[in-house]
Amino acid sequence: MTDDEDPALPADSKLTRTKQLWAQAGKFLTGRVARPEGERLPPGQHLVRDWPVLDLGLQPQVRREDWRLDVTGAVDNPVAWDFDGFITQPQATEVCDIHCVTTWSRYDNRFEGLPSRALADIVHPRPEASHVTLHGADGYTTNLALEDFLGEDVLLAHAWQGAPLTRDHGGPVRLVVPRLYFWKSAKWLNRIEFTTADRPGFWEVRGYHNRGDPWREERYSE
Ligand SMILES: Nc1nc2c(c(=O)[nH]1)N[C@H]1C(S)=C(S)[C@@H](COP(=O)(O)O)O[C@H]1N2
Ligand SMILES: [Mo]
Predict the structure, then answer these.
(1) How far, in Å, from the CA of 192 to the mean position of ligand 2?
(2) What is the tens place of the pLDDT at every residue in 86-144?
(3) Which residues form a coiled coil (predicted)?
(4) Do 213 and 179 touch, CB atoms closer than 8 A?
(5) Nearest-atom index, ligand 1, CA of 203
(6) What is the pLDDT, as a whole number, of residue 87?
(7) Is 198 exposed, middle or buried (0-12, 13-18, 19+ CB in 10 A)?
(8) Which atom number of ligand 1 is nearest to the Cα of residue 189?
């Protein structure tokens, strides 16, 4: 018997093996970090009370009656919804903080919309789907790893603080990905493309970080 084998600890019990498998799989991890209230603001950010508008300078006017969403690519059931088709899908409300890479953060935004997970239940991403590209009506694109897109708090949002999302903030429908810098939250969303490889989007090919986690200050690609 060697020093690290203690007969009182049955290292090969069923429970031990099961718990080792849990550790390998990261079971019970929420993906969240508990933070005291004083650490609600990510590093390098400052709090704003208004809601700044940021985009490429052209804000397409898309009326609800003209809006379409195509969900395409590596999925078993592609969908093409008009606004009525979209709004009759499962709905969720959530309150989240948003963090722009230009250093403003805004607390307690109440968004309503279709959770990305509910969308995935409908379109069935294929096993080889690894990323999504979000397309906006202004030609903007941004990429997300599938696991970030399928975060429990990701919404295809059509309302903010109880009112329809306005044109300047990406209405009729935008993505909201609260855990990443806000450039990942595509406005004027009109296509979600499931891809089998990572395709960096508008800002990601212009020096911005591919993932953009504000808690790690993943602002730039260098
Ligand atoms: N379609 C589209 N979505 C976009 C952008 C854009 O230019 N076009 N800008 C991104 C950036 S850089 C930010 S910070 C947020 C700003 O959203 P807001 O104007 O509602 O604050 O939208 C993101 N989504
Ligand atoms: Mo931004």
Answers:
(1) 20
(2) 999 999 999 999 999 999 999 999 999 999 999 999 999 999 999 999 999 999 999 99
(3) none
(4) yes
(5) 12
(6) 98
(7) middle
(8) 1
Q: Which of 96, 97, 100 is nearest to 45 (CA)?
A: 100
Return the number of other C-beta atoms located less than 10 Å from residue 164's C-beta: 13
Query: Which residues does 123 contact at the CB level (< 8 Å), separation at least 6?
Result: 71, 75, 76, 77, 78, 79, 194
Closest residue CA from atom 23 of ligand 1: 183
Q: Compute the C-alpha angle 167/171/174, nearest 5°.
A: 135
Mutate to test the pocket of ligand 1, among 55, 141, 204 (most ligand atoms within 8 A of CB): 55
pTM of the model: 0.85
Measured from the Cα of 139, ligand 1's closest atom is: 1
Question: Residue 201 has what DSSP assignment?
Answer: -
pLDDT digits (tens, 9 = 90+) for 37-66: 668 999 999 999 999 999 999 999 999 999
The set of protein residues with a Cβ atom below 6 angstroms from ligand 1 is 51-56, 100, 136, 138, 140, 169-170, 182-183, 185-188
Domain 66-216 architecture: Alpha-Beta Complex (3.90)
Place of tokens 């004027």: 188
- Nearest ligand to residue 53 Cα: 1
Contact of 187 with 169, CB cutoff 8 Å: yes
Between 37 and 84, whose confidence is greater?
84
Distance CA 159, CA 153 (A): 15
Which residue's C-alpha comes closest to atom 7 of ligand 1?
A: 55
